[in-house]
Amino acid sequence: MFNRGINSIFPIPIYLEYAEGEEFKKIEEELINVSDKTEFSQIKNWSADTHQLSENPFSNHILNEYECIATLEFIQRNVVEYVKLSTKSDGNNQYVWSESWITKTLKGKYAHEHHHGYADISGVYYFNTNGEDGNLRFDNIHGQMAGNYIFANLPGKQPMPLKNGLLILWPGPLKHGTLTNNTDNERMSLSFNILIGRQGFVVENG
């Protein structure tokens, strides 16, 4: 159903939810415990100004490795809701975590623009932020049409909220990065990628 005036079509579904109460406390305890036991380093050949990641970030599932039950349950519940809301399905698809890792962003560091093109769903959960240490920003997918006057006047980047307990889910191919952390706080976040099973593409939990 369209209305008179401006109608936005082909919206990108970005999902936000907050952990609260006892669930928030359990998740915080799990992730702080994992980060305390984790060695962080920058990826070889990345810019020296970029953030640090946990060991083997793109081949490990750190939540499974450390049995972060509360964190897994919170994210899984919201993944189902995200799929339901964005696809109008029942959300009960089979899916698999392809990886999960923890990011440490020190003062003066940032995440360069990139995407997780193979992932159906990518996500981040913040568990140590002061709210001013480097917001996630999504790129406008219409940027390649900026030569057009209408497209050129759309926002180029969209910063997202930044708060402890915040979960953000989005389609993996969407380009994103973070602003530089200009504070003394060591921002800590959990990131992950998920693949969804469907006809012609079966996923198996390993």
Describe this structure in words.
With 206 residues, the chain is α+β, with helices and mostly antiparallel strands. The protein has one domain: Jelly Rolls. It has four helices and ten strands; from the N terminus they run E-H-E-E-H-H-E-E-E-H-E-E-E-E. Strands 1-8-5-10-4-3-2 form a seven-stranded antiparallel β-sheet, covered by helices on one side. The longest helix is centred in the middle third of the chain and has 19 residues. The chain is globular. The relative contact order is 0.24. The model has no long low-confidence stretch (mean pLDDT 94).
Could you name the CATH topology? Answer: Jelly Rolls
Strands side by side in the biggest sheet: 1-8-5-10-4-3-2
Largest sheet: 7 strands, antiparallel
Silhouette: globular
In the predicted model, the low-confidence regions spanning at least 5 consecutive residues are none
Mean pLDDT: 94
Following the backbone from N to C, one meets helices and strands in this order, namely: EHEEHHEEEHEEEE
Q: What is the second-level CATH architecture? A: Sandwich
Rg (C-alpha, Å)? 18 Å
Number of strands: 10
Helical stretch tally = 4
Give the terminus-to-terminus CA distance: 43 Å
Percent of sequence in beta strands: 25-35%
Indicate how many domains the architecture comprises. 1
What is the CATH homology-level superfamily?
q2cbj1_9rhob like domain
Percent helix range: 10-25%
Class computed from helices, strands and strand pairing: alpha+beta
Oligomer: single chain
